[in-house]
Amino acid sequence: MLLWDRGMLWGFLLLLSGAVGQRVIFPGNVTVNYPGPVCAVKGSTVTLHCTFTPHKSFIKDGREYPLRIIKVVWCKNHEICQGSTPSVYDSESDTNNPRYQYLGDKKGNCTLQIRDIRREDNATFRFRMETNHSAGHHTVTSGVKVTVIDDPQMTIISSRNQSLIREGQTETLLCISSCSFHQLEVTWFRDDHALSESGPALQLGPLTAEDSGNYTCGLKTNSKTRSRPYELRLEAAEEGWFFTSVFLIGLFTVNNCFMFISCLFH
User: What keywords tag this UniProt record (predicted)?
Assistant: First the structure.
């Protein structure tokens, strides 16, 4: 009876090893590099920079089969992002919402751009790749969280951190919010007259008396976001002096807090 039990045990182990030998094996790992949490102003454009590394092949029964990406999908608030799940972008669909632009490809770039961002975009976005064999389908569920705010109060900061400067110098004013400061389409005003510049940075110079005044800025799509006035006053340049200056400015975020650096060289 003991020998029979041993035979059954060896038979079971052989059967198990045969089953294990038929399992699907993937060389390497699938990765998707999502950006960190994004804060976006309603009406702005936000780009979710994203890269991915797909499975290139899989091994079954000792034989390697190549894989090829045939479909990419972005969806929101769904962990698997497949089947009948509503998507914001599907590479096989002809009815994608034009607000969502796929700037990536099927090789390693999965960047998604969201235009005219709305409250409904306050969600977690996830990327899915599908291959010519179902064994290679994959969704990395961590995703990227997008938070949308409605009416941020815009603020103007100066490269010099002072409002009184000399004629002939240069000045850069930045229009920022408590949320994203890049990719914002803003309108600049001087003494309530609209200027032609539309980016978040307004570069002035060499400054003349005409540049003096009260500057404000606000989102093109939302007049409620207009900033408080920033007064720029010019002091006449001293006669007999030739004055030039070069600025290096930087604006970046650390843990969602704005950091501003300015350097002045004479």
Answer: Membrane, Signal, Transmembrane, Transmembrane helix
